[in-house]
Amino acid sequence: MSAAADPAPAADPAAAADPAAAMDRIYRRQRVIYDLTRRHYLLGRDRLIADLAPGSGTVLEVGCGTGRNLVAAARRHPAARFYGFDVSPAMLETATAALARAGLGGRVEIAQADATAVAAGALFGRPGFDRVFISYVLSMIPDWRAALERAAEALAPGGRLLVVDFGPQDGLPRAFGRGLFAWLALFHVHPIGDLPVALGDLAARHGLALDCRSLHRGYAVYAVLERPGA
Question: Which of 30, 48, 116, 205 is the most exposed place for a label (fewest CB within 10 A)?
Fold first, then answer.
């Protein structure tokens, strides 16, 4: 038997009313140890970073958090220009410090914005991005479908949207999935059971090619959506 993720994150009235304040409450203290703990179970994000392959193009991270992914991606792809945003001012403080320590302030620009409402091109003064990625963020956003829509809209012609997040755990023991979901819920993280279906719908609406697969026996969903070139 396997565990099944909820079809959508549970509604949180406080988070919906003021997502920035909600995320700050959850992560203001955790952000100090966030990267040390999350590296053990946010599986697939380093694969995503390797798969970006942006050349000298532009890369946007939706929900950049502590800046860990932006630092890793900027180091791996030194010819690219990077951008990121997060709804939490507290997380952005940590990200700014991380980028400064890594000496990447000149190649990475970050800003405060809500993934469900932002026009990322306007935010950073760009017509679009060659790569957009979302790593373990959708399961934290009540209106995750809106966040996906805004991410797809930010793609330049020929661009790719890469997504990794928790899967349904359908190839793993039921007790493992139940325990994982209960623990994640403490941090307002709710795996999305119908994420592959939603990605398929998104691809159809925006005319994107979709490659969606399961990682680690259903532990994670990994997807690449590509917009046709001009």
Answer: 205
Encode 98-133: b = buried (16+ Cβ within 10 Å), e = exposed.
Answer: bbeebebeebbbbeebbbbebebbebbebebbbbbb
pLDDT of residue 102: 96
Q: Which pairing describes strands 58-62 and 81-86: parallel, antiparallel, or unpaired?
A: parallel
**How far is residue 43 from each of residues 22, 65, 166, 200, 217, measured CA to CA in Å?**
25, 16, 9, 22, 12
Tokens of 40: 């053990």
pTM for the model stands at 0.85
Contact yes or no for 194/130 (Cβ under 8 A):
no
Whether the per-residue pLDDT at 16 is higher than 70: the answer is: no
CA dihedral 193, 196, 199, 201 (to 10 degrees): -90
Q: What is the pLDDT of residues 47-81, one digit of tens each?
A: 999 999 999 999 999 999 999 999 999 999 999 99
